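Page 37, top half.
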Amino acid sequence: MLRDRAPLVTIVGPAGIGKTRLALEVTSQVDALTCDLDPVSDPDVLVDVIARACRLQSTSLADLVRALGRRQGPTVLLLDNAEHVVDPLAELLVSLLDGVEDLSVLVTSQIRLGLPEEICFDLDPLDTDVAVRLFESTAARVVPKQTLDPVLTRAIVEGLEGLPLAVELAATRLRYRSLQELAEHDRIPVKMLFRGDRSLPPRSRSLQLALGSSWELLAPHLEEACQRLAVFEGGFRIEAASAVLEDPEPTVAALRDHSLLWSRVWSGRSRFGLYDSVRRFVLETKVDSTTLEAFETSHAQHYAERGRHWLDAFNGAQPTEARDWIAEERVNLQKGFDRMCTRRPELAADLVAAMSPVVAYEGPVARNLEILHAGLDCARRAQSPKRIARALADLARSHNIRGSFAAARQFGEEGARLEAGPESVEALVSQAHATFRSGETEEANRLLERVRIAASDDPLLVGQLRTQEAMFASVGPPDRAARLATRLREFAEANGQTRLFALTPFLQAGAAERLGDLRGAEAFLEDAVRSFRALREPMYLGVAHGQLARALLRDGRVKAAYDRLQSALAEVEALGGMLAQGFLRIAELEVLVKLGRTSEAKSRLALARECIDAIEMPPLHEQLAAMERVVGVDRPSDEVRVDRDGRRFIRRDREVDLVRRRAVRRVLARLAAASERGEGPLSWQTLHEAGWPDLSASDEGARNRTYTAVWTLRTLGLEANIETSGDGYRLVHVHVLDM
């Protein structure tokens, strides 16, 4: 921009983003005059400060204009840290740019100047890889001999949101704290991010001081707005901001102009959020707990209400939009749940229900089951039969998808017994489905008759009833199955149930195949592929692709089946469908065996195992084990030797030392003791007490610490040995020894 003779360029961004560093790097390539405006407290001396910094003889604006005009050739003037003198500086620059030919001004500021000539360059945070390199290079100067764990380093940097000053300051803390101790913080507190180098200006020595200077620039109403918006984590839409702000549009615009908010487009809609460092600064220093709780409750109420709307949309005519909203707001939904879990359990249960279209249908299964169980616990504490039935229905549906039919029957039966209206009927539907899949057709039909009586004229329940009727018919005469599948499709279309309409080709394909119409079955499955591609729903898209590949196999078109699976894998991977990838990886192995490419199948086993281990779905584990036997591969043992004190473990002759990781070591020791005694899963509360015996914390903080410790153990090699269930964590396939 400067090379193109742009008259005024402003580098804009929040405190600590690296505006000064970038400006100095740019101006080092030209003969620039530089002035730091940070010490200016009186706008009346602005001209004198700029003149002295530029070593120009001037006592007035006119003198400064003449002095700059006498310089030979183009002149570049850098004015650094201008946010606190924006208005007087803007007036001064109008005169300078009008009066000095070939003058280019580069300004760094948290607030744009608002002049017509101004070109704003918004400076973004570092991407993760660059931030990791900055952390490592800073750490190498502070603790030259220390080796950094790349997993922990990356986790720390991601928590700092790529803010260069925060990354550097965190790395300097390695002089006093271990990498593990830094990583144990969900977010490193702002007050911890400082260094004692007195040669640097205060804003470069402490993140809290840097952010404090930004805070001083805000009008009182914007200060309050920051306090209110700090409850949003992961950003917000404008309509969500209205839950805590009376007039969000101009307020959000003003905070954006102060470089306190980021903005981006998600699914075609604008999204905003306080920079995480700003948000934590506000929460740690600028808002009292009572006020914060009120804002947090308003935040949770908004998302619970919107969640109910999107649940209806998911089951109706807008399933894709509903899933997109849940994906976009997943962090806020989870955060709202964490906050309301003890304060307002009824709100917490509603927030889990809002997440259910994602957590009930998609992976990772174990983590999602944990969320659904937590929602059930909150519904029970709220003593709300409808919420309890809703949570039980979601759990039953998730277990049906996972193939755990005994658990699905248990949860479905419990929900149906509550007689809590449509929610109980949905639980009964899941119970009937699990009973049918368990082979008890007569009992399943008896349960379905109860659904038929209870469904009445509720379109959603009638759709679920007809779906089960069509599925049950798949074991009867194929012509009846075809009729019921066609009727179901017509019903779904007439009632605007888009997702159900997309599901019916599966049933139609099954009936067509049983009638001997293989090409008709393929056509129905192609229809399913098109429908779920349009809905961007990875799980059923993967199932449709997989069933189509198997249909091609049965028709003898093995090469076509293989080609189909390769394109399908690329498609569902792009959508992030872990469950779908599991289905497809198994089908891929079957096709490779049919093609006689056994050695290639062996080489693909590792990919299939990695995917299926991640989603923890028992039927797929069984299918994978069968394929391993077919290709003649014995799965390596997952058993490990664990020291009873948690100081180390050995996996496949690789020893992992945990001596310096005190909290993680204590968590592993507690898990090992439970494994020896045959205890069931340990709750996060129990593990937190073991890992941090002398440290009290909020439920949210304790849960995050425990989750981080378990995650650390998994990344170090125990991913196959720590099982997660709704009740907690436990070690499996281990030998506990004194080592």
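Page 37, bottom half:
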Amino acid sequence: MFKKPLGMKKALGLLITASALALAACGQDTSTPAETSTPAETGNNGGAEAVAGNGIGTAMTNFQVEDQFFSETPMDLSLLFRQLAESPWQNDWMMVERLRELTNVNLASNTTAILHDDFAQQRQLMIAAGDAPELMPFMYGQYVAQFVAGGGLLPITDYIQHMPHFNHFLDLWDLRDEFETTRQADGNFYHLPGFQEDIRVRFTIAMRRDILEDLNLEAPTNWDEVAEVLAAVEAAFPGTVPYQAAWGGDAITNIAARTFGVRFGWGLGNGLILDHATNTHNHISQMPEMRDFTEYWAGLVRDGLLLPESMAGGFNEAWENFVNGYSFAVDTSGAGMHASLSRDIQNLVADGMTGGPFGIDENTTLLTLPTPNGPAGFVGENRLNNGLVLNSSIREREDFIAILQFVDWLWYSEAGREFSMWGIEGETFEWVDGRRQLKEGFTNPSWTFGGNIEHADEWQQMQRDLGFSENVWLPSMGASRELTISTMSEELQELHMLNATRVQAPFNPGPPYNDEEREIASGIATAVTDNTNAVVRRFIVGELELNDANWNEFVVQAALDMGVERLLELADEAHVRERLN
């Protein structure tokens, strides 16, 4: 049974009439852990009375867990918004307007919206030029170090105490040690990550359940079984290539690489992996596990099971081929895509389409796999995810502490998370039989529960039309278990709970370089990363024969010509220095 939180509609009404400032936390036991740290450590006393010097401004006094933030004086904040083509930023989104009513914070006047494809590059340019917006969500932790020396990002270390919800859930979900790995070489934190209660696996593979059943095939649980299923399907449908990767293969290889004990795709980063047993670093180009990983994916292409062109393609083409019956399996981001893929297939069937060689009809059903296991075992993602960085200029504002309190409420309280995902109780959603359900007139076609997806083409869409459930607000990147599964069907809830039992991947913090080391290491790592990515992809798609001679040449070239040996020396020296200090 799901616990019902205090509704947002009630809070909105109170704000409009008398500006009451408290909301109960939503759907989650937020009681303070049995062993608590002092307020200075945990931030459970985040009010203005704890502030010395400037920045107090309109900060709430004694701001604590379960308090709703509200600024007595209107606040304008600038926001960097990662924009999807299908849901462009709108100043008059309900999300933006209701947020202003709830908090007295206005994001509409100075938001910079940048399309997803160009987002990272434009963000980098703005930070380097010193004209980045004050709030910058959707930043992954591995990209923070490059901005530290320039001084454009706020070192948040001394101010986290004013963020009670952030600290509360950091302790409640036992994430302190993991958060510590994000500390930069100068000793400061700059990144406020999204964090989640459960281990999650965002990317996996969707397969045609109806074809599995027709061929009497069991759902695969590991990568070897995936290859066996794909081979059986290819044999039953001669001349087809059953699997097409999406996102150029970057999403699925990122997840798969973890199960082989290496890094690749979106998770490639600098290619360094800390060996916690020896406290020394490895580089994936030098690891035998990397060859095992490459052999697997190259084998899928060699055996005609994975379309090689899809390893350099976009998402739309892979999606279209799957829903039109031209492939049996495709990469997916889980619950949202499961619903969208199913809906698109049935829409095509309703239009009289019969599809390609795999066919589509009214009996077509999908299966979203738990991410397959690999040689490294039942490994899942770490629980820190993309989050926010703040422009260092906000320290000069009189309402600096109030800004931190606003960030703390919107991104880290359960009430703020619920608002970001579901909107306002009584207005956009209601509780039915112990679960949230969007009200009539509102739909979210990416949800498999509560989203009124049958009305996706006629009712207002929560994301596209109203601005809720955008990843910028972290609803899918950081949340409690209750909120995470609140939009999932029973089948996908079971999938989530299965993934939640995985072993968390070992922490892999970036080496705490000093400025001189960082400059040297950055140049080497960039060259090595580009080379590793290019050569491994050539092996996978068959442009370069994967044999001992060619692989050994790649290993030696990376170690000597590309400078991996020097990179490992720098990383180990920085790590040893940090441990001694």
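Margin note: The longest helix spans residues 515-541.
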